[in-house]
From TrEMBL:
It is found in: Golgi apparatus membrane. PROSITE patterns: PROKAR_LIPOPROTEIN. Residues 69-80 have a biased composition (Pro residues). It comes from Littorina saxatilis. Its EC number is 2.8.2.-. This is Carbohydrate sulfotransferase. It is a single-pass type II membrane protein. GO terms for molecular function: sulfotransferase activity.
Amino acid sequence: MLAPILRRLRWRRMSLWLLAMAIVGCLGFLIFTNQVPVLDEDPLSLKTKLKEAAKAFSWGSDDDHQPPSLQPPPQSPQPRQPTSLQAFQNRSQRVRDACSAKSGSAAQGQPPFPYHSLYVRSMSFCALPKTGTTFWKWILYYVDKNMTGPLLSHDYGDIHKLTRYMEKADRLPPSDGFKNIVFVREPYARLFSAYVDKLFTPRWENWQRLAQPAMAYARPGASFINRRCSHNVTFSEFVRFFIHGEMDRDARVKRNEHFVPISHQCNFCGIGYDFIGRQERFAEDTLGILRQLNRSDILTFSALDEHYEVYFMDALIKYTFEHELKKISATFRCMSAEQILRRMWKAVQIRGTLSAEEFFPLARSDIQGMTLEGFLLMAHLAYNRSASDKDRQHNTAQALFEAYSTVPLHDRQLLRQIFDDDFKLFGYEPNHPLVFPPEDEFDLPYYRYFDIYDSFLYTSIV
């Protein structure tokens, strides 16, 4: 079955390319004959400006003079190096200084949020969601079980269940000999990533647990199907609900660890963290910590580059096929199989794993008989083609820019207030131009990451 689909896919790509060339030719003819006004600026300016903004601007100042960017930096002649001990010490000192300056709880407007730390040998790791915690649970499990061979050569299954025995709630680590580790993340990017993973990506359980309350608050007049499914909560609606839960002390909202500000968790002003990693420099910081713990043998930059992205792409595809695409799945009450797969494909593109030019590979008629193995093959072929697209590392920045363009200025200002302690403790920029662009003008490219039927064809033509 897969061979005919691939043949149709090749013909469809060729047809779309010929159509694009024909349209470009017609536009060129019309411009040449003065029937269409010629723009004063480069037609690609919107796309180019956004790419340059994503490339040039860092998400905050860092102590080792290598400011973290939203996406990993492009390959350069200088090989990457693990983060130095001095850089970690500078970050820890910044937190101590910020805590001393505020002389109180790190939480603003809300009590500190319950957190869990994992204890393994002489290490404690505060498990902050959306900062690379899953990967670090692999590391802790590998170390605790005396596993051998490369870290990423093992199948860890449900690592959250496997490491549950390590968890201790709201506990101060021993003062002697323990190394305290935590990873943090740029607040605007973390909130956006949580929305993509928990609400945009098809997951019935998350819609019931997280999206339904947001829908009830932000869209009280929603239809019955939208109230029941809550599968189409927008980013702007989610932000309004998040603000309500964080700023209204009387709100009957169950706060969630994936969204609560980082400074409200992990007791940063009460625990002296030896290693504060940044999600934006995840590879360098992870290898830097392992070097200080004398475990550089279990992971390398090349292993991360080769396996990290593909592992998470495969995990998302497998989960979607094995849970959300089952006929008995409640997800089918809300979305068709095509819509589920298209959303999943977009989520992988937003992560920067697949190029935005890799449009959804299946015709509607091919979806019913598609197997997990067949879809994985298509995804891997798309991933291999995406390797030549250097712009895909900016997909997340572009998608974030699109998402925050839908949030009113007043709500973005409230977010800035909510995240104030995060900015002070960890050195992130409160007025990032992808969230607060000059004159508050969002010049969006034509491609839309959150329109599941959109294609990069439109961007390519313009």
